[in-house]
Amino acid sequence: MTTVPAGHRAGARYRSPVRRRRRGLLGRQPLGLLFSSPYLAFVLAVFAFPLGFAVWISFHDYFFAAPGAEVDRPFVGLDNYRDVLGDPDVWRSFRNVAVFLLINVPLTVALSLLLATALNQATRLRTFLRVGYYVPYVTASVAVVGVWLFLFNSNGLVNRVLGPLAPDPSWLINSTWAMPAIALYVTWKQLGFYILLYLAALQNVPRELYEVAATDGAGKIRTFFSITIPAVRPATVLVLLLSTIIGANLFTEPYLLTGGGGPNGASMSPVLLMYQLGIEQNSPDVAAAIGVILIVFVLLIGWLQRRLAGGDET
Amino acid sequence: MSGDGTSERSGRWSEGRVEPPAEGARSGARPEKLSGDGTSERSGRWSEGRVEPPAEGARSGARPVKLSGDGTSRAQTVLRTVVLAAGAIAFLFPFYYMIIGSLQAEPDPTPTGAFPDPSNLTLDNYADINSRIDLLQGLVNSGIFTGGVIGCTVVFGVLAGYALAVLQWRGRGLTFALALLVQVVPFQLLMIPLYVLIARDYGLADTHLGMILPFAINSTAVIVFRQYFLQLPRDLFDAARVDGAGELRLLRSVALPLVRPVLVTVVLITFIGPWNEFLWPFLITKDASKQPLAVSLANYISNVAATAANPFGAVLAGAVVLAAPAVGLFIVFQRYFTSSNIGSGVKG
User: InterPro entries, per this entry (chain A) (predicted)?
Assistant: First the structure.
């Protein structure tokens, strides 16, 4: 393959007439498709097909049968959705996850942006600070849950320090506090990842903007609101979206921290309910319908966030 | 996310500089949406900022009086470092407490219990958890699961990342868009169909293959590879092509030898996914001898902890064993875990 190196360097390879003439059915270097084919096959098998299959299951009477058994799985229209929407447990789990998101998402955005801004300017102790803020993110939730159970149980360190201010019953078995406690836990656990995203965005903010602000006599706080926040807006849209998706995926924490969505379903999450209904109670069709509804909600929230944060650029 | 990969990227690069005017233009076009929340006031400041540059001389004259370096006084710098360090210590405290708790013979939740007490130290908790769940077997299973994912990600991720960055072929833009999109597909929607397919239809329940399959190629890693190949000088590839090297040879002799610096980043970000994953292996492994450590420890926490002599001690000992490899790996290689690498992997 002879090419024109200068054309490449000038970044003109898209409009190069040389290339257009040589373009075959699969492009100039069809080998690229071959190299990417394992990844494409993976995406089709693990994402695209299951996504369609999930929707299909949710419209059929689907159940687990003995291996090899020929069973009839008739189309049932919206029956599964009717079951889901008529189930108070489902509504409660959606309310719980809404409480979770209302605490977790704003806290995540505010804390990660503040910490990233401060870390971006920090010159001392950089390694220590990096390790400190990222370690919760790189550690298994299952491991860290153990410490939180120890810290937040009725007799734990947190309640001993709080003394009479400690809630009764304790955090994780208190129907008011269980969900906020989980939301705080997840915020702390995931914060490092979002700090990382904001740090990447902050490094792309042109320094001149800050210099101009300083000349104008803008203080730190003013600069933060007038320069930093607008400049990292695309990152904010991404953080909002990812924290909403990860939040809606909540499973491990209510399963372990509050003993399976307790007390009395006060911290039941939709995904935990999907597990209980779909896999433990053999109603994958109903569980798939919950999944579809959940995704519709997540997409709706994501779209609203985009509108409100004005992040058309991402 | 749509369109051709490279033009998308160049859009992103210039974004930082282009944005302020765009912001001003937007608020001008849709005042009804932006007024009332202080944004119009802000866009006023933006335009002020754009008018500013001619006053360059006046600015540099005024600066030394009030500011040093990035515009922060020394007291502010010290205060910032102290606050950040205090925050980091607060973030690290649960990990310290995990280790202390795992060594206590009697759980001591009092404030003094947060300090090591020589008379209350023991390794019994580690023996105790090891007698309940086979720690070594759990570590081996976690290792196979994680190793399988890392292997597939590195081999197929390099190929895809290279194709996305260096080669031109039909579907390249679409593939790149897919790699970005896949990262925001929520697992909750895939959970039921994947369980049906992998555990029921393919009969891969209680197998390592079944565990690995849904995680096999990490999309973030694919994009990290792509970004890495994109920033290599194009002349490198062009020169080899002029010398008559075929594309396969180019990959083997030019691209792969250069990939080492980014390999550590990719292994790190890929490692933490499967090593820490709980929901999926929990769904498809019922056989204790096949469970990764995260699953067997979680089962211990939810089922049997109540019957142990020192439940917290045993749980925390297991937690230390589960956390140690990820934390250790991260601390050793933390300088590869950078915002530019990982940020670009998620945003493209």
Answer: ABC_transporter_permease, MetI-like, MetI-like_sf
Domain CATH for A252: 1.10.3720.10
Tell me which of B18, B65, B81, B189 to substitute to probe the interface with A (most A C-beta atoms closer than 10 Å). B189
Which domains are seen in chain B, by residue range?
A: 21-66 (no CATH), 74-121 (no CATH), 129-347 (1.10.3720.10)
**Does the beta-carbon distance from B16 to A204 stay under 8 Å?**
yes
Q: Chain A contact for B292, CB < 8 A?
A: no
Q: Does B169 touch chain A (CB under 8 A)?
A: yes
> Is B286 in contact with B206 (CB distance < 8 Å)?
yes
ipTM of the complex: 0.85
Q: Which of B169, B197, B252, B322 to mutate to test the interface with A (most CBs of A within 10 A)?
A: B169
The 8 Å CB, 24+ separation contacts for B198-205 are B198/B284, B199/B283, B199/B284, B200/A64, B200/A67, B203/A67, B204/B284, B205/B284, B205/B285, B205/B286
Mean pLDDT per 10-residue run, chain A (314 residues)? 41 45 72 94 94 93 78 86 93 94 96 93 86 92 91 86 84 89 94 92 87 84 88 90 91 88 87 92 92 91 84 48
